[in-house]
Each structure stands twice: as C-alpha cells, then as structure tokens.
Amino acid sequence: MAAAIPQIDSVVQKRYMELVANFFKSAFDARNVGKKVVWMAYFLPSELCYTLDAVPFYPEIYGGVCARMGIVLKYIEAAESFGYPRELCSATKSAAGLALSGEAPPPDAVLSTQPVCDGGMKVHEFVAVRYKCPHFFIDMPYSTDARAVEYLKGELEEALKFLAESFGAELSEERLKEVMELSKRAEELHLEVNELRRKKPSPLLSIELFGQYFFPCSFLGGTQAAVDFYAFVAEEARRRLREGDVPEEKYRILWSPLVPQSFLSILQWLELEYKAKIVMEMVGYAPKIEMDAAEPLESLARKTLEARFPSLGNGPGVFNLDRYRKVVKDYDIDAVIYFAHWGCRTICSAVKMVKDMLREEFDIPMLVLDGDIFDPRNNPVEQARARVEEFFEMLE
Amino acid sequence: MMLERVREVLDGREAVARSWKEQGKKVVGWICPYVPEELIHAAGMLPFRVMGAPVTIVKGDAYLYPNICTFNRVVLELALGGRYDFLDGIVTANVCDHIRRLYDAWHFFVETPFKLILSLPHKVSENAVAFFRDELSRLKSDLEKLAGVEISDAALKNSIRTYNRARELLRRIYGLRREEEAPISGAEALEVVKAGMFLPKEEYVALLEEIFESLKRRDERYEGSARVMIAGSDLDDPGFVKLIEDSGGLVVADDLCTGSRYFWEDVDVSGDPLEALARRYLSPVLCARMHPYEAHIEHLIKMAEDFNVDGIIFEALKFCDIYGGEYPLLREWLKEKGLDIPVLMLDREYVLSGVEQLKTRIQAFIESLS
User: Fold this and answer.
1) pLDDT score at A4
2) Contact flag B325-A316 (C-beta cutoff 8 Å)
3) Global pTM value
4) Distance (Å, whole) CA B203 – CA B242
C-alpha cells in the first residue's frame, strides 16, 4: 500500500513521514495509555488538546494519509452510500466514512467549527451523533480584527472548559502557558523554514512534505515534536545552501491553495522533471503573528485567525487577495498553479478573482487544474500532465 | 381577487423599487434573511430581497464556478447584467460558503455604491449575541451614512413593531392552513410571503390584513390526498410548490427561508433594540447553518406535527452542503426518536428543471402517503 506514496531520496521527507506516522499512532494507541481522543475539525488548534494531555485526531487529515496510500475511496463511498451528496468535498466525505466504518480511533469528544466549509461543519455534527459523545462548537468570526480575536478567545476558553469538564480533568494555566510557549516556538521555526524557501534557488521541495509544510504547527502545535521537526528542516535547508546541495530550479511556482493528496505524482513530476519548484503553497503560508505565552488564549486566537483560518481563502476575498499579493512578491513567483478542488466551493469560486489580479497587477500567468484533493476517480492524471506541459511551453 | 396585488408585485418587483426611488428615496438589497431589514426600514430606505429569475447562466459560471449553487450563480448573472443597478446598497452575512463567495464577486465586479457583509455567529450564546450586536451597530452606522439620517431607538422600535405586525399576520394566515381543507394553497402562501420581501412594509401590512380577512371568508378550499411540508434550501418558486400540488399533495407547511422561517419569530420590543435584533436574528430556527442542529430539526418536526403533515419533501439545491449535510442528520434524528414521518429527499436546481423526473418522484411519494 505504502508504495503509492511518491517517495524521493530526502531526509526531510523521511523525517516527515515518521512525524505523521507517530502523530496518528498516538491517536490509535490513546486508549491503551489512558488518554482521551478528540476529533477536531480541520484547522482547529491542537493546543487545546495538548493542554489537557488529550490526543487530537483530525479525520480529514487522516483521510489525506489514506489518499496518499490509495485506500481512501472506501471511506468516500461509505459516506455516499449513507446519503451524503456526491458533490460534497471528498475530504469531508472521508471523515464521515471514517466515522461510519468504525476504523478510526473513537472520539471521547468532538470539537467542531464552520471553517473550512459548511460540509465539514455538518459532518462533524454527524460524527458526534454517531459516537454519542460530547460535542462543542467553536464559533469562528468572519474577520481578523481585535473584536474578532476577543470573540474567538472567549470561544477557545469555553472549549477548554468543556474538554476539562468532559474528561473530569483539571485545567492548568501553567500547562496552557507551556503548550503556548512550544506553539510560539514552532510558529517561529515554521516562519524560518518559509523564509529559507524564499532563497533563490530555494533549498527545499514541496514534495518533501507532500505540500504540507503547515502540518506540524497546525496539528502538532504545542508539542516539542513540532519544534524539533521545523528545527531539523531549517538546519537541513541551511546545510543545502551552505554546501550548494540545492535542487535545480528553473521556475518558481506558487501552488494554490491545497495539494491533492491523491495526485502527488504531479508534484514529483513538476519539481524533479520540469525543475518547476513549488516554493510556497497558499495553504502553508503564514504571516508573522504576535504571540505572547503570558496571554495564551489571545495568542491562540490570533494564530487560529491570522495563520490558519484564511489560508484556504475562507475569509473575505479582499483579505484573500492581499495574501496572494504578499506571497507573489516575497517569493518572486514566476507562475501560479491553482488546483480547483471540485468539492470546494470556496477554492473554486476564487479562481477568476485571483487570476485577474495576478494578470493585472503582476503579469503572472495562472494555470487552473480541475481535480479532487482525495478522490482518485476525479483526477485525470494524463490530461493534467498535458495541460501542465502546454502551460510550460507557453512560459518558455 | 385578493391575490392580484401580490402577483402584480411579484411580476414587477423591480417596478416597486423604481417607484420608491422616484420619490427620491434609497433601496438596499439584502441577501438571506439574516439581515435585519428593520435597520434599513428605520433609515427610511426600502429593504429589497435579492432573488434570482429564470435566466441562462453564463457569467455566473465564469465569475464564480459551476460548483456554486444555482441560486447564487443566477443572482450574480442578474447583477452582472445590470438587473440590480437600481440598488443603492447590498447587505448580506457570512451565511454559507456560497453566499460568502457571491458577496466577494459582487464586491469586485458589481458597482453597487454600498456593500457590506456581516460576521454572523453560528450559535446562540451571550458571547455571540454581544458580538453580533456590535456587528449590527456597525451596520446601523453605515446605513445612517448612506441614508443621511440618524436612526433613533424610537424609530428602530417603530420599525420593529411594523415588522412584528407583518409577522403576526403571516402566522395567522399560516394558521388557516392547519384546517383540513385550507383556504389557501401552498403555492399561494409562498406568493404572499414573497411579496413582503419587496413591498414597503406599511403597504404590505395593510395588504396582509385584507388577505387574512378574505381568506376567512373564502369559499374556495384546497385539499389533497396527502398533507405535505416542504423543507430545505432556498426555494422561492411557487411553480415548484404547484408541481407538488398538481401531483395530488397539498402543501400545508414549510421550513423555508422564503416561507415560515422568514417570519416565525418576533423581535422583542422592550429593552435595547440592537440587542433584541441580535437575539432574534441569531435564532436557530432561521437556518440549518446554526449550531446545535437539533434546535432547527426540533422546530421543523414540531411544525410538521402542528400542521398534521403526512410527509416531508426535503429539498436541497445541488452543491448546498448545509442542507445536503442536514438530511443525514434529520434521518438519524427521526430514527433515534422513533418517529415515522416519511421524508423524500430531492436534489434540485434553483430554476425549475427536470420537471418530468421530479414529478414522477413526487407523485410516487404522495401515493405512498395516501
């Protein structure tokens, strides 16, 4: 099964695969070691769980691992057979299918929210019903100003109280601060890695982390493992630059916004064969965030709103476009490849807005690839390769 | 006939707005019933619900994407084609993934002078009410600038009273549909509710009073082989309801944002009017987008029981993840509660299409009920 994952000769990729395997293993092993499992909506901060020594399980992210391994379809089909629309996002359906299959670690509690999508929100409600477990909904405001941060801070505080109450655990302010100190450190190192990717030529390939440079600080935020991982990647990037051991780079590409986990061969082909290096993924871009461990919940609210929430274009379009402007300038982008994941209303409907802006303000071309992040039935690989080839011929 | 004025409004809703503008007054469009019309009304402007119309989608696909629901693509098609040029402003809320993106497209590509999207919480808590009250305060201040007037608490409360009166009359009219033989069909009821989304409210209240009195005296009665409730996504086409009624069912109740959800709950007139609006418009009854989902489903089932419904037609616009995702929850909820209410799930497009196929499924469902 694992052979389906495009592997390259990279210490970074090897370390990343170990990190991801250990992350999900901890959820599968949780019951055996007396820990609680919390099913989390995509992009809800893992720090909430680690503060209470619980283990977060992100079903959509686990679905992504299954997609990489070529075993996700059975979960998607289980959700469709149950009555979820075929048009629903495949990541969301994989989460519903995992709940229906009973093959995932059962939750002791569910934390849900609206972003990244309405479909995810409804499926997480279903997960709580299916497992008859306590459920708390974290309401995410549709802005990132001071009032929104204050509102989300209140929601996160309630969520922590809910988890503590559900698990009969004591909420420790000191532990929260420790977790947030680690979270802050991981954010700083993530920024450092992103900064190193700006170098020309860039020392890292997107395929080394399957396009998921955001993974450790999003899902392992608040752990030493995330800190160590980014420190390792940064050090390896510096070594490559120092020793001139940098992958060849003909074009600098921004991949937007999500990398299709069932379609990773296209990344490998782009970066290794075409030397079109993906120097940033929109989903992984993170601005510098003011985080202060002395104000842990405010910092966590800010991280959630400013780094995670808008990364798929969930926020207002004006905000979304400003992010593109910044990335295109900072990373000296030659072209954008926009993966229009059919199941995602938000991603697809931003196509024209982004494409027009890139052309008018930067004269940068954007290739739109239609496909599906998880569902292999909806990814015509050969057609996509032909379109990419045409696109690069045009660039030349 | 009492519904003549209603049909006149529906056939020429833009004419209502244009005639208002001829008096030198402004019109503000609203998308989705989470926008408190009372604030627009209190500023002396006409609140006007933005709806679609039968049209071929071309630009709507190009400026959004074909995986956005047809309601939003049709609306954008009309807006890009100049059909909403008479609007002085457009207000919506971050109701769903589709409306958020419609607003973005409107923001970038349609030249309406004033545009605003409200940050609308997904749940009801004191934290959420306080947050939404602040959002409404922002809206109030922007509307004051647009209208060039100050909205006093007294004026706002007056608007709330007018809207509550309309709501009360609509509930009374709906109450007549509890009778075994109803004096109003489901298609007519939808027309009556819809007219209120375009007409100046004072005129609408007077019209509703007249309609209610006429209905009480009406000899013509409607019956069907089964009493049906419609629930689900945005549905404003009386033709769809007529399709059900032509198939032998009588639509006696609904759980639609163009129907009962629009008027079922009043706004409290005591205390701070902005807080009262925040509380009312955060009601879980308004849409399945709200958490916890049980509150909405409980309301839906209570209505089905109150109106002695034999079966529910649950429709979801294609790509609507909120109602597409609500259906499995409804089914599980009914199973859990041991309630034997038949539900037909229909996937549909905003503009009525595939009529024969729909009719076959609806007829089979109604036959199974009767």
Assistant:
1) 54
2) no
3) 0.96
4) 27
